[in-house]
Amino acid sequence: MATALYRRYRPETFAELIGQAHVTDPLRHALSADRVNHAYLFSGPRGCGKTTSARILARCLNCAEGPTDTPCGVCPSCVELSRDGGGSLDVVEIDAASHNGVDDARDLRERAVFAPARDRYKIFILDEAHMVTQQGFNALLKIVEEPPEHVKFIFATTEPEKVIGTIRSRTHHYPFRLVPPSELLTYIEQVCSSEGVSVEEGVLPLVVRAGGGSVRDTLSVLDQLIAGSPDPTVTYDHAIGLLGYTHGELLAEVMTALASGVGSETFHALHKVIHTGQDPRRFGEDLLEYVRDLIIVDQAGQEAGELLPGTSAATLEGMRSLAQGMGTPTLSLMADVMAEALSSMTGATSPTLHLELLMARLLVSRGQGAVTAPVAPSRPVVAEPAKPVQQPSPSALAPLPEVAVDAPPAQPLTEPAMIDAWPEILEAIGEKKRGVWSALVGTEVMGLEGDVVTIGFPSLTSAELLKKPQGPGLAANAELVREAILTTTGHRVRFKVQQLPATAPTPPAAPPAAKEASKAPEATGSWPTVLPPKVEEEKSVEESELVVEPETLAGPVAGELSQVGEAVIREVLGGELISENRVDDEN
Ligand SMILES: [Zn+2]
Q: Which of 31, 157, 174, 427 qualifies as a cystine partner to 130, CB 3.0-4.6 A?
């Protein structure tokens, strides 16, 4: 029977231990400077080298040439403590999980009194030290406090906080960490080549992922893959099947369908996933990870290969074209939606249904991100050709000079700039209040007129939330939206809400540019909103209630078109004008 990989590759010196330099370097310093403490506490997640390090430390301390940071490897102690050795009489390993009582502690205490049989020190390694009972620790306390010259203690534990403080304070504490994926990947590549095993591209990153940063787990997974492989080469399909991950091609297919924004393709791709028997939650996690990778590819450009080790040039190229087609803002919005859906999927009665609903939301958020696509984000904001500003009715507002004190806008806010900034504004809202953000998913800027922004909602029911206060005695959620607009664009605006139309909209007072803007996502295939006719007009009544009064007003004031708007609000809808309220308030 072959020995397990992780036992065959157990490091024998600190130099061989990977990913723990922050711990092993100071330890080696202490050893070479002969400043060794009498008790150590090694803590950290399972399988990252605590017990192995304890054995190496014992080997370093008891080497005939030692104490040294590089054991000679040939003296009797070194041979006995090597990975094939039978163990040394002077190094006692105790599994505290099964020897955790007072009697065991007393026994240990008695053994510690005797001098080492042959070597420099009597070394006690207490594995799973957190399992020692309170009484056990108390019995140990005296000897750990003032041990005889020849005794060293090494405690290893996954839960250092469970080791009583009086013991802990007498040890030097070295926290071990999970090993970073890139380091693990390089390591198992070496293991494969020294084992003479060939693996297909993409297999090793999966192994690293399954190992979760633990060297022992990673090697066990690799061992299992190699042992169970029917072919001399471990294939990607074999690895996918055994580890339960979603096939990379399937992920790419779903993402491509989402990118195209065509609902039918998306659901076809999703059903293919479900028919392969994939666990919906696992698939969701894999897809989220894939989106993360796409964002990295989009942001890192040529350096993406270094950041995603183990990914072939061809795969990277495919990901690059997919990522560039969608852009980071859309991808990051999608990632947010997925992360939220995944957390609500835990224990869900029908995870498949959740997955399908998630796809729908992703299609919506994709359409939302697509609004920004045609406009380069870094493009300087160009003001629209100015409309002749009239000083219309006496009730209309004059530009307020003190506005500049509140928010000094370098340029007047334009509609394209507003549309451009919308995803960022949503992100800012998302950081402040998740609930408000989700109410705004799928919304679009439909127009900007003066300082009034029209926000289109797929459903006006979600807009209701904006009227609600942020908390008892606090301003309405709408204020949060206005603040986010202010911090993102530098303009304090008012806004009104409107139902997003199913087809090209004709909002009563929207300038022509607004119609085009709201048509744009339609053309690229956002989730269609079907509305019964005439609803638009009815809903517009609510819209006037939702126009919220800002503290200050910015931007150029209403021209001809807003007069049309006034007339519509006044005569057709029977609403009140904001400006009238405002002037009244001030008078
Ligand atoms: Zn030696």
A: 157
Centroid of ligand 1 to alpha carbon of 119 (angstroms) = 10
77 C-alpha to ligand 1 centroid (Å): 6
| Rounded distance from Cα 150 to ligand 1 centre (Å) | 18
Cα(187) to ligand 1 centroid in Å equals 26
CB 453 within 8 A of CB 510: no
Distance 72 CA to ligand 1 centre (A): 4
Distance 70 CA to ligand 1 centre (A): 8
How far is it, in rounded angstroms, from Cα 23 to Cα 17?
Answer: 10
Residue 125 and residue 458: Cα distance in Å, rounded?
Answer: 64
Question: Using CA atoms in the order 109, 115, 119, 123, what is the torsion angle rounded to 10 degrees?
Answer: 10
Q: Report the separation in Å between the CA atom of 11 and the middle of ligand 1, taken as the mean of its atom positions.
A: 15
CA of 111 to the centre of ligand 1 (A): 24
Provide the 3-class DSSP secondary structure of residue 409: coil
Pairing of strands 39-43, 172-175: parallel
- Please state whether the predicted TM-score (pTM) of the whole model is above 0.90: no
Distance 43 CA to ligand 1 centre (A): 26
Q: Which helix (H) or strand (E) holds 416?
A: helix 415-432
Q: Round to whole Å and give the CA distance between 388 and 400.
A: 18
Output phi, psi for 242, to 5 deg: -75, -40
Give the pLDDT of the chain (587 residues) as one tens digit per residue: 578 888 889 999 999 999 999 999 999 999 999 889 999 999 999 888 999 999 999 999 999 987 899 999 899 999 999 988 888 889 999 888 888 778 888 888 888 888 888 889 999 999 998 888 888 888 888 888 888 889 999 999 999 998 888 888 889 999 999 999 889 999 999 999 999 999 998 899 999 989 989 999 999 999 999 998 888 899 999 998 888 888 888 898 999 998 888 888 888 888 888 888 888 888 899 999 999 999 999 998 888 888 888 788 888 888 999 998 888 998 999 999 999 888 887 776 788 888 888 888 888 877 665 444 333 334 334 444 444 444 444 443 434 333 334 444 457 788 888 888 888 888 888 877 777 777 787 888 888 887 788 888 887 777 777 777 776 666 777 878 888 887 788 777 877 888 887 654 444 444 444 444 444 444 444 444 444 444 444 444 444 444 444 444 444 444 444 444 444 334 434 444 444 444 444 44
Structural domains in the chain? 5-175 (3.40.50.300), 181-243 (1.10.8.60), 248-369 (1.20.272.10), 415-499 (3.30.300.180), 512-586 (no CATH)
Cα(99) to ligand 1 centroid in Å equals 30
CA of 373 to the centre of ligand 1 (A): 66
CA of 518 from ligand 1 middle (Å) equals 77
C-alpha 17 to ligand 1 mean position (Å):
18
